[in-house]
User: Fold Demethylmenaquinone methyltransferase from Litoribacter ruber.
Amino acid sequence: MAVVPYKDQNEGKKAQVATMFNNISKRYDLLNHVLSMGIDIIWRKKAVKLLKADQPKLILDIATGTGDFAIEALALNPDKVIGVDISEGMLAEGRKKLKKRKLEDKIELQLGDSEKLLFEENKFDAVIVSFGVRNFENLEKGLADMNRVLKPGAKTVIIEFSKPKRFPMKQLYNFYFKHILPKIGKIVSKDNSAYTYLPESVQAFPDGEDFLQVLRKVGFKNTQCKPLTFGIASIYIGEK
Ligand SMILES: C[S@@+](CC[C@H](N)C(=O)[O-])C[C@H]1O[C@@H](n2cnc3c(N)ncnc32)[C@H](O)[C@@H]1O
Assistant:
């Protein structure tokens, strides 16, 4: 059974995820930085640095949301970053941010499904995703399509939540994620389910070696996992 945001509804995971992010889009950035105490910003910076030697010129940011990872990727001095997302609400917030920061010529945000990308194969110098893959309806299909649009030898860099394994971080994290975060999330986002879905979807999602196995299954080579901050999140790297 897939973990979905709204358990009492009949829609599939993809439609529910899009609705959920549309609902919380206006509060998403604020909640992200408050609930992670700003660590998410450091994680994205660290992930982008891993692509420095590759000097990618055309970058695809999957599940771009409000565009934070796409903006961070500008540190690599690419010609262009294209961000795709299934939530028009998140993209609308992203577009406002790009306009304010005068970044519209560098970053293009498009409505699109990561499991059915409308790009030809071997197009991108890098494909990046932060906190997106956990939300895919079909993980293997999404990762396989990311592989398809990458140039041979080019890399994907993925950030996703993972589960700390050791005492006392495991216990602290579980308490925070299950009891504190859903309460703050509910009050600020005004969505009853979004921040319950977050810990539940992390719990059900493959992390560490399990995730690397899925990456290899869909065709990625030289896969690596770099745990961040006691294993609360991890960066995964794979090469086409
Ligand atoms: C937690 S947000 C992450 C946004 C951004 N990458 C960040 O780091 O803040 C997850 C995003 O994934 C998007 N998403 C989920 N499934 C998707 C899919 N199949 N294709 C494209 N976007 C998807 C959601 O709409 C949402 O905006």
Observations:
- The mean pLDDT is 95.
- The beta strands are 58-62, 80-85, 107-111, 124-130, 150-161, 221-228, 233-239.
